[in-house]
Amino acid sequence: MPLFKFSKSNQFSSPQASYRDVLTTLQDLIAPAGLEITPNYLKLGEKYCSTLFILTYPRYLSSNWFSSIVNLDEAFDISIFFHPLEVNNILRDLRKKSAEMQAQIALEAERGLVRNPLLEAALKNIEELRDMIQQGNERLFDTAVYITFIANTKEELGQIQSKIENALERQLIYAKSAVFRQFEGFESSMPLGLDRLLITTPLNSQPASTLFPFSSLDLSDNAGVLYGINQHNNSLIIFDRFTLPNANMVVFAQTGAGKSYAVKMEMLRSLLLGTNILIIDPENEYTYLTDSLGGSYFKIAVGSNDHINPFDLPMVAEDETAEEVFRSHVLNLIGLIKLMVGGLSPQEETILDRAITQTYASRDIFPETMNEGKTPPLMEDLESVLKNIEGGENLAAKLYKYTQGSYAGFLNQLSNINIANRMIVFGIRDLEEELRPIAMYVVLNYIWTMIKSDLRKRMMIIDEGWWLLKHEESASFLFSLVKRARKYYLGITFITQDIEDALMSPYGKPIITNSALALLLKQSPANIDLVGKSFNLTEQEKAILVQASVGTGLFFAEDRHVAIQIVASYAEDQIITSNPAQLQELKKAKEEFSSS
Asked: Domain span at residue 131?
């Protein structure tokens, strides 16, 4: 007799059945701990979600209208269902509707009523739709659009719902919450292809196609510069920066990502199209390029033979007065001296303002005689005037090193550079770090004076521009140039690898805002969130920049942007390369050719 009695159902349980009983499925792993269903939202674990459906559309839908919803910086899922309708049934309904409208129009005409334009337009639309359906050019769909959004709190859920509804209502599209059917809405938004809500609107093919949130990713104009290859569709990115509201451009990338290479390529191709080029070169990267193209390279350094006198006076343009130009020039000089001496008190600024005016007066230069060809003063003349002004002795002492001290050959000389060239480069590599922002300020001011006096299509390249953003005076001056460049047919290209300093500067974001073009190449993971916030990048776009290879990234033209690959021809590559090994090979080949 057995010691234990087993129930009949459990006597012979198979190993397979036992295994299935304890097996954890994928559904168990990804499912939330619990699901709470309410009329207006669902609570999945610690998250809240709710579903909207689109109820009505306007008479016309523009292409890509849905991208304004897709690009919202919120967490949500979108499901779009197209349920094809039977052509025979549709044609029968349209024929019936057309007959009703024709009868109504005839009846109103018999009664002598004024014609009804809305009724006639509706009849015309129905007849056109009938023709297109019969010819096979259009189809009709019951269309459903569901948006399920997710938040951490009920308050945040309400804010997201308002944001989505407002974005839709701006386009005369109205959405409703799936009240009492939130679970069906949630299921409909899952990647199962199941429409549980079945709240549809009939749309024909043309308006239905506008729901696809993809605008043309082409950036190809009829004329302009070839920037690279569009990685989305392998088309060419051809663009003329001077057709935009402004021709400014920012270039952000890590060291070695190819930013200088890309800018040189654009510069080379722009030269062929008649654009004059001005460059501030902090690392002598443009020397070989300048020599190859026959440009003018000016070395700005303490012991250099190339000099720029900051006291050179600008020309008076037709829409300006001599007094305005003179006053603006004096303010620029005050900004320069602030950089040189490390800042000024309000009292010192007042003394300096008076001293600069007296310095020009000592050379018989006044606002009304500023463009009569008289020799401008030097920094040492300002020092002499300050010594004789009450309270100016301290300022004069601070200027000593720039007039007679270790930096005497830097700013205390008459200008002697010849700017009669289509490509002009100012090299500042051999300057001490302390003098670099000062040199960039002086060069920028000199270039600006030249630009205002001779209106031509120009592109100015400021490499390692973060040097200017380190100081209030130079950053403010740069920003004023960026804002005013368009007026003088100028496009400024601002390049930097020190992205964090540039974007954290009070002038960094405004410079980006006033630049219609942007080129973002490889970024470091440490900076990508800051870059993403500044340029409103999606997570996928941030991933593209972090993983980018040399010469690839994102190219922005106003509100359009594409993934780009910078490509140069063999001949261009030989000229614009910055690779030291490549440059050494080119130099060796050139020497061998010369000796043969």
From this structure: 86-138
Q: Say whether pLDDT at 10 is over 60.
A: no
If you ran DSSP here, which 8-state letter would residue 23 be given? P
Q: Which residues, at least 6 apart from 399, have a Cβ–Cβ distance to it below 8 Å?
A: 337, 340, 341, 379, 382, 383, 386
| Residue 261 dihedral angles phi and psi, to the nearest 5° | -60, -45
Query: Tell me, what DSSP letter sits at residue 433?
Result: G
Is residue 167 helix, strand or coil? helix
- Do the beta carbons of residue 238 and residue 221 sit within 8 Å? yes
- How many whole angstroms separate alpha carbon 90 and alpha carbon 64? 27
Half-sphere exposure of 203 (CA within 13 A, CB side): 25
Above 70 in pLDDT, residue 375?
yes
287 burial level (CB within 10 Å; 0-12, 13-18, 19+): middle
Q: What is the pLDDT of residue 492?
A: 94
Residue 22 forms part of a structural domain: no
SS3 state at 196? coil
375: Cβ contacts below 8 Å, ≥ 6 apart: 363, 414
Tokens coding 240: 């003329």
Report yes or no on 264 lying in a domain.
yes
Q: What torsion do the CA atoms of 560, 561, 565, 569 make, to the nearest 10 degrees?
A: 20
- List pLDDT tens digits, range 306-327: 889 999 888 887 778 888 889 9
What was the pLDDT predicted at 498? 75
State how far the Cα of 442 lies from the Cα of 448, in Å rounded to an integer.
Answer: 10
Question: Among residues of the chain, what percentage have pLDDT more than 70?
Answer: 94
CA distance 382 to 361: 11
Cα atoms found within 13 Å of the Cα of residue 486, Cβ hemisphere only: 13
Give Cα separations from 132 to 2, 119, 129, 143, 262 (angstroms).
84, 20, 5, 19, 49
Structure-token match 């470091």, residue found: 524
- Cβ-based neighbours of 433, under 8 Å, separated by 6 or more: none
Alpha-carbon span 129 to 413, nearest angstrom: 79
Q: How many domains does the chain have?
A: 4
Report the distance separating Cα 486 and Cα 41, nearest Å: 51
| 536-586 confidence digits (pLDDT tens) | 888 888 888 999 999 999 999 887 888 999 999 998 998 888 777 877 887
Whether the predicted pLDDT of 157 surpasses 70: yes
Is the pLDDT score of 8 beyond 50? no
431 and 517 within one domain: yes
Q: Which of 150-154, 281-285, 416-420, 540-544 has the highest mean pLDDT?
A: 150-154
The residue with tokens 């509706």 is 122
Considering the domain architecture, whether residues 170 and 253 belong to the same structural domain is answered as: no
The type of residue at 403 is: T
CATH number at residue 295: 3.40.50.300
300 touches 431 (CB < 8 A):
yes
**In a shared domain, residues 315 and 210:** no
Tell me how far apart the alpha carbons of residues 286 and 302 are, in angstroms, rounded to a whole number: 20
Within a 10 A sphere around the Cβ of 387, how many other Cβ atoms?
14
